[in-house]
Design a protein that fits this description.
Helices cover 32% and strands 25% of the residues. It has 318 residues and is α/β, with parallel strands linked by helices. The strands form 3 sheets. A 6-stranded mixed β-sheet has the order 5-6-7-3-8-9, with helices on both faces. Strands 11-12-10-13 form a 4-stranded antiparallel β-sheet, covered by helices on one side. The N terminus and C terminus are likely disordered.
Length: 318
């Protein structure tokens, strides 16, 4: 971009011992973590965990009750022409419905000394170049999401804070933003993205920050998270589950019924299960090792931190 940027320390987000109270409710509780450049950091947590509140504090929309949040070494409120340093997407619906798409970005650009040409470049980049004169009130959720991303990228910022950027996007749009986030991180930017789509985070994020009830639960690389929190289990098919179940119970293992005639043994290895089955004369039609997906590991980790949970519906153990 043609405009010159104010000299700032290396891009980074620092959340330092932050607490946020609303009356007697503690939304964020002594939270500390850093978001580094050059990688996509997934910001995860159950509903009510405090993710959006934390992002709002990053952007100066809420003040911490205790602690501080710094972007590039200073509070957001002290960054001049902030769109040139920090791009954010919190609520794509928070725009005037009667305003045209291009005009919406022009207002933002001119308030931060960003050239008008950048507006057209970003509308083209997010796939909205054909609807620049349409009023935002007629946009679908996916189109508003793209417009919000165009606004976040408008100032060519080194820091991006994106709350549920995949919401409302079709499969092509999800694939597009996955590629976009990767490119931004590879360009050396700070990329923080929250999402409830665990499968997408599994193929997009390099690092995870997970919170529950406002507290930090994990701050690890994706590889470390899988190794530390991903549970292994054996799935099998047999015509004599009762006999195998009793033999495994004697060794402290549990055989659990799954759908489709399959059975599962948590925290086990195939060779051990195969040896027990052979000793007991139990035939095995299938025997395979599985590891938890990111979603399964996340749900187990945050089970006690979820604000709303549904009753379990799996069959009883043998």
């Amino acid at each position: 971009m043609a405009t010159e940027k104010e000299s700032l320390p290396q891009a980074r987000i620092d959340v330092r011992d932050v607490t946020k109270r609303y009356g007697s409710t503690v939304a964020v509780n002594q939270l500390t973590f850093q978001v580094e450049p050059g990688r996509v950091t997934g910001f995860l947590g159950p509903n009510g965990a405090g993710k959006t509140t934390t992002m709002r504090m990053m952007l100066g929309l809420d003040r911490p009750s205790d602690g501080e949040v710094l972007i590039n070494g200073r509070p957001y409120a002290r960054i001049e022409e902030p769109l040139r340093h920090v791009g954010a997407l919190l609520d794509p619906a928070a725009v005037h419905p009667g305003r045209r798409a291009r005009d919406q970005l022009l207002v933002l650009a001119r308030s931060n000394r960003i050239p008008d040409v950048r507006v057209d470049e970003m509308l083209d980049r997010v796939g909205l170049s054909s609807v620049t004169k349409r009023r935002i009130g007629g946009f679908s959720l996916g189109m508003r999401q793209r417009l919000g991303l165009a606004a976040a990228l408008l100032g060519d910022p080194q820091v991006l804070i994106l709350d549920e950027p995949l919401n409302g996007l079709d499969p092509e749009g999800i694939q597009w933003i996955r590629k976009l986030l990767r490119e931004l991180a590879e360009d050396g930017r700070v990329v923080l993205a929250s999402s409830h789509l665990m499968n997408e985070m599994a193929v997009t994020a390099d690092h995870l920050v997970i919170i529950g009830r406002g507290r930090l639960l994990a701050d690890v690389s994706m590889t470390e998270f899988s190794a530390r929190y991903g549970r292994g289990r054996v799935r099998l098919r047999t015509t004599r589950p009762e006999r195998l179940g009793k033999a495994l119970a004697a060794e402290g293992l549990t055989l659990t019924a799954m759908n489709g005639g399959m059975w599962e043994v948590p925290e086990a290895q195939p060779d051990h299960i195969g040896a027990v089955a052979a000793r007991e004369g139990v035939p095995l039609q299938e025997l395979e090792l599985y590891r938890d997906s990111l979603e399964e590991a996340f749900l187990r980790m945050t089970a006690r931190s979820a604000e709303f949970t549904a009753a379990a519906g799996r069959e009883a153990l043998i």
